[in-house]
Amino acid sequence: MAQGSEQKRGGWGGGGLRNLPNLLTMLRIISIPAVLLYIDNESALRSFVACLLFVLAALTDFFDGYLARRQRQVSLLGQFLDPLADKILVMATLVWMVPLGRIDGWIVILLLARELAVTTLRGIASAQGLVIAARPLGKEKTALQLVGIACLILHFRYRLLFTDLYVDFQRVGLYTIYLSLVLSVFSAVDYLLHFGRALDRQQAP
């Protein structure tokens, strides 16, 4: 959720967990165990259910931010929970799929390291009085990750409707995650350069 001038002061602001945007964010967190529970290497149906739950959880990320801005319910609690829910959803799912053989551990480690690095950089920037907003490369990386993870959760080969063609979602998911990994590296460098430029402007006489 982006910080806006409509943010309310005092406590967590915006009604805490009582407002709809924050409830949607909490729903995204609560849905994570269900997503993990249904990921199954033996059952295509269970994996389809897991993918459906994952997609619905990911969609709440759009709606909670939209509603928060539209209803002027942007809150400190929402600003804390929203990115936390996103990272837990993505990383928990990726880590869970490592022992299932759907993704290599080194990929997950690199993606996790990138998230920790950018989060730490933003924390340092905040301590310096700087705000580093989401960068375009970061948004594209996130979109690719979500698509890749959804395909990895589907995992099995499915026939396209009304055709004899099959799509191997495991392979499509891996290729998409590889591409998101490349964007993750470039995005991290972009954040670092942006922070450096902002720091130079702040310290300029």
Give an overview in words.
A hairpin with a 6-residue loop joins β1 and β2. The protein is an all-alpha fold and 205 residues long. The protein has helices at residues 20-30, 32-38, 44-70, 76-97, 105-127, 136-154, 169-203; strands at 157-159, 166-168. The chain has 7 helices and 2 strands, in the order ααααααββα. It starts with 19 loop residues before the first helix and ends with a helix. The chain has 2 domains: 1-97; 104-205, no CATH class.
Indicate the overall shape.
globular
Tally of separate helices: 7
- Content of β-strand: under 5%
Unreliably modeled segments: 1-12
SSE-based structural type? mainly alpha
* Estimated helix fraction: over 70%
Number of strands: 2
Largest sheet: 2 strands, antiparallel
Number of domains: 2
What's the N-to-C terminus distance? 33 Å
Q: Report Rg.
A: 19 Å
Mean pLDDT: 82
Order of helices and strands: HHHHHHEEH
Strand order of the largest sheet: 1-2
Write the layout of secondary structure elements.
Layout: H1 20-30, H2 32-38, H3 44-70, H4 76-97, H5 105-127, H6 136-154, E1 157-159, E2 166-168, H7 169-203
Antiparallel strand pairs: 1-2
Quick gist of this model?
This protein has helices spanning 20-30, 32-38, 44-70, 76-97, 105-127, 136-154, 169-203, and strands at residues 157-159, 166-168.
Keywords:
single chain; 205 residues; 2 domains; globular
